[in-house]
Amino acid sequence: MTEEQKSLPKWILIVSALFAIMELMVSVSLCFSPQSVLETVDLSAKGVDYLIYMWAARQFALGFIFAFATYKKSIPMLTIAYIFFLVMFVGDFIIGILQKENSLIVGALVMCIVSSALIFALNKRK
Q1: Once rounded to an integer, what is the mean pLDDT over residues 53-72?
Q2: This model's pTM is above 0.70
Q3: Is the CA virtual torsion 78, 80, 86, 92 positive or negative?
Q4: Is residue 61 predicted with pLDDT exceeding 60?
Q5: Do residues 125 and 7 touch, judged by C-beta distance below 8 A?
Q6: Where are the alpha helices (DSSP H) in the chain?
Q7: Half-sphere exposure of residue 118, counting CA atoms within 13 Å on the CB side?
Q8: Does the pLDDT of residue 125 top 80, yes or no?
Q9: CB burial of residue 66 (10 Å; 0-12, 13-18, 19+)
Q10: Domain range spanning residue 76?
Q11: Once rounded to an integer, what is the mean pLDDT over residues 106-125?
Q12: What distance in Å separates the CA atoms of residue 104 and residue 93, rounded to the nearest whole number?
């Protein structure tokens, strides 16, 4: 283990592990109980199941990346994961504005701030 890996604060690892668990849980929810996540979507419409599985795959991949990067205590890997997280939530923020959905706007904005703060904290460690 390098000196850099030893110096990674526990709070960053805890937050990253929580994000990994959250993303994996969303993925499982989308696969096995999509109605719990997508209350306003007609799940019987043609092609919706394909989109749900695509979204679940994205969430699973992100959760796996966060889990692996947290396990390895890798600052570069966690930085890339948080950059992806930031880009994803910037997209959600734009979608929230276009759809005029305040809860999505606020949630995405908060997550953009959290992601940016964690990117800053990780890069301060380099």
Answers
A1: 94
A2: yes
A3: negative
A4: yes
A5: yes
A6: 3-6, 10-32, 34-37, 48-72, 75-99, 102-124
A7: 28
A8: no
A9: buried
A10: 3-124
A11: 93
A12: 7
